[in-house]
């Protein structure tokens, strides 16, 4: 997330506090089924609910961040979900002989997901919404104003393999340190295997760097697994590494999903 290579006059801690809420707001796994980065085209079905209890621990040099993101989805129609995702975030960054910490409620996403095309194994969907500024921006826990995002999703389900591809855009607050127009691209492959297991073979993502001082787009790769404990209850975990120095060195994700 934050690199030690800074232009003269930049305060690394101030930049971390400015960039963290945007990174949390625009990260692709905010919108995907745990532990994926990439979203799929699946919806819940009319009258059905899904609750994802997702956790993410990010580490990069002397900096640490944690996010708890419970996501509730409701199928208002067969092809249309309404989604609410509040967050709780915490971070710690050490440098120049001082440590900065903050924790508390983060911003909240209110989204709609619509699967608008299905033909055989191929389906298309879009997910769009608003990031509500419920986090304390003064403490670095929120963006400070509403953000807006849209994601285009393609899925190819050729059992036992499923392929997903995403293109996304987030408009966030910009200032002297951070960009406001943030783009995303990702692709993933998931294989269903026996005894209730799904394996995330790969999930590769590239995002606009939110730091104005840097032009290198952070690239990451993630692997993971989902295990169905019983009908309507899944547990998952994933591990993410960076593909270049602009991305955080590693991210661990784990979650529990309930459906009814």
Short description, anyone?
Helix content is 6%, strand content 58%. The protein has 260 residues and is mainly beta.
Structural account:
The chain is 6% helix and 58% strand. It is mainly beta. It has a single domain, classed as monomeric porin ompg (Porin, Beta Barrel). The protein has a twelve-stranded antiparallel beta barrel. A hairpin with a 2-residue loop joins strand 6 and strand 7 (122-132). The longest helix is centred in the N-terminal third of the chain and has 15 residues, at 12-26. The chain is globular, with a radius of gyration of 18 Å.
For the biggest β-sheet, the strand order reads 1-2-3-6-7-8-9-10-11-12-13-14
Order of helices and strands: HEEEEEEEEEEEEEE
Number of helices: 1
Determine the strand fraction and express it as a percent band: over 45%
- Rg, Cα atoms, Å: 18 Å
Q: In total, how many domains does the architecture comprise? A: 1
Which CATH-level-2 architecture?
Beta Barrel
Question: Which descriptors apply to this entry?
Answer:
single chain, 260 residues, Porin, twelve-stranded antiparallel β-barrel
How would the blueprint of this fold be written?
Elements: H1 12-26, E1 49-60, E2 63-77, E3 80-85, E4 88-95, E5 98-105, E6 108-119, E7 122-132, E8 147-158, E9 161-171, E10 181-193, E11 197-207, E12 219-230, E13 233-242, E14 250-259
Antiparallel strand pairs: 1-2, 1-14, 2-3, 2-4, 3-6, 4-5, 6-7, 7-8, 8-9, 9-10, 10-11, 11-12, 12-13, 13-14
């Amino acid at each position: 997330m934050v690199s030690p290579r800074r232009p003269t006059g930049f305060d690394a801690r101030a930049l971390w506090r400015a960039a963290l809420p945007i990174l949390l707001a625009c990260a692709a796994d905010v919108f995907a089924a745990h532990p994926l980065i990439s979203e799929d085209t699946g919806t819940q079905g009319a009258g059905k609910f899904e609750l994802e209890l997702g956790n993410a621990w990010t580490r990069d040099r002397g900096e640490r961040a944690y996010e708890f993101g419970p996501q509730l989805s409701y199928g208002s129609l067969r092809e249309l979900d309404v989604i609410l995702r509040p967050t709780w975030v915490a971070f710690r960054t050490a440098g120049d002989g001082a440590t900065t910490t903050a924790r508390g409620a983060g911003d909240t996403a209110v989204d709609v997901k619509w699967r608008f095309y299905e033909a055989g194994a191929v389906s298309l969907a879009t997910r769009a919404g608003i990031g509500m500024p419920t986090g304390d921006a003064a403490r670095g826990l929120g963006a400070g104003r509403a953000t807006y995002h849209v994601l285009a999703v393609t899925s190819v389900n050729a059992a036992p393999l499923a392929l997903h591809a995403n293109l996304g855009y987030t408009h966030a607050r910009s200032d002297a340190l951070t960009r406001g127009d943030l783009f995303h691209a990702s692709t993933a492959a998931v294989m269903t295997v026996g005894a209730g297991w799904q394996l995330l073979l790969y999930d590769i993502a590239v995002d606009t760097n939110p730091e104005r001082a840097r032009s290198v787009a952070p690239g990451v790769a993630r692997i993971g697994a989902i295990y169905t404990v019983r009908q309507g209850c899944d547990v998952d975990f994933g591990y993410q590494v960076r593909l270049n120095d602009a991305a955080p060195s590693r991210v661990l994700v784990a979650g529990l999903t309930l459906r009814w």
